[in-house]
Amino acid sequence: MLNGGIESLTITFGSGAIYTAAVVLVYDYVLTLRSEIRYIWKARLSFVDALFLAIRYSAFSGAAFALLTTAPFETWEARMRLGIYNLLQRYPPNDKIPAVVSRSNLLITSAFFLTAARGQVFTAVRVFAIFDHAWWLFVFVAGIGMATPVITGYVFFEFILIEPLYVTPGATTCNGSYTISSQFEWSHKQHELAQRQAYWLMAARASSLLADGIVLALTWMKLYRNHMLPDVTRPHISTILLKDTGIFFGLMSIVNTLGLCVGNVLIYGAMASLWASSLTSILSCRLLLSLRETSDPSGNTEDSLSRVLEQALFGIDQDHGQSQVLELDVVEVPVQSPPPNGDA
């Protein structure tokens, strides 16, 4: 009874975490939609714009597929789970069958993979731009960062597509005939597979944390060098961009650290992956929009909620707002004509 209550509470908490991540993603989208239309949709499409759209909307697809798994009504995901349940009933206890994958798991993992890969490309591009087009830094950071999507893809194909399921007694349904609880009384072998999967996901989070830490250190080193320059030779926009980038990677390091701390628990690791994907999309897109707005000579100076939140997130220097207009009084000075020739 106690185990059933704990399992029910865990499932409820997991569903709430998924809903919260989706709400935060949509809320930020509403706040930044105006800036996206102005700086992305109305501009000529470039590589950075395509990267922005890929990061932003792949996170939306992952959140949408995750929400379908928690729907209280009958969906194609629920029918797929019911089919898996009926398939398991054909096998005797402790027997193993080929792996069965629902379409939602495939779509969710694909969306997370694309978000992580594009996020790491964005990180490498930022380093490439900050450090005067240093290709070796681009390759170095991209190589470390791409370990995250590669490990995530390995976990999915190795532990979900290839590893078999081990049937055990006690498989039950919840919500009538719509879904299966998660829920099977796994055998010892299945627990080992789940733990190995959790450890690999923690390794992916650690590689992402390492990449963000390296970029954070490089960015703040560049910012310190820029800060040591005289005010006359210090480019103000470059300082703002460096500060924004440094704060961005600092926040991403915190996100990956939290994901690493809870990654040893499989269900919490899945929730951490969803939150990391959502926050990666939010922070990356906000940074790109902030850089576009900072470099725009006719930038918007309205105190909208989007701009206030952007300033809170990225610490835009408030000392350099609208320039003050200096009014000079014009004084007419009479000019005396030169004396004629011969006059003393």
What does the model show?
The structure is a single chain. The chain has about 350 residues and is mainly alpha-helical. It has a single domain, classed as Rhopdopsin 7-helix transmembrane proteins. About 70% of the residues lie in helices and about 0% in strands. It contains 10 helices and 4 strands, in the order αααβαααβββαααα. A two-stranded antiparallel ribbon has the order 1-2. Strand 3 and strand 4 (about 180) form a beta hairpin. Helix 4 packs antiparallel against helix 6 (about 145-160) and helix 6 packs antiparallel against helix 7 (about 190-225). The protein is globular. The model is unreliable at about 95-100, about 160-185 and about 300-335 (pLDDT under 50). Pfam families: DUF6533. Keywords: Membrane, Transmembrane, Transmembrane helix. This is DUF6533 domain-containing protein. It comes from Fibroporia radiculosa.
CATH topology: Rhopdopsin 7-helix transmembrane proteins
Total domains, how many?
1
Structural class: mainly alpha
| Helix content bin | 55-70%
First CA to last CA: what distance? 120 Å
Round the mean pLDDT to the nearest integer and report it: 64
Weakly predicted, low-confidence segments: 93-102, 161-187, 301-333
Radius of gyration: 28 Å
How do the helices and strands follow one another from N- to C-terminus? HHHEHHHEEEHHHH
What share of the residues does DSSP label as strand, in percent?
Answer: under 5%
- Described by the principal axes of the CA atoms, the overall outline is globular
Count of alpha and pi helical runs: 10
| CATH uppermost class | Mainly Alpha
The number of distinct β-strands equals 4
Instruction: Enumerate the strands of the largest sheet in spatial order, edge to edge or round the barrel.
Output: 1-2
Please state the second-level CATH architecture: Up-down Bundle
Largest sheet geometry: 2 strands, antiparallel
Transmembrane segments: 6-30, 51-73, 135-157, 198-220, 240-259
Protein name: DUF6533 domain-containing protein
Keywords: Membrane, Transmembrane, Transmembrane helix
Pfam family, one: DUF6533
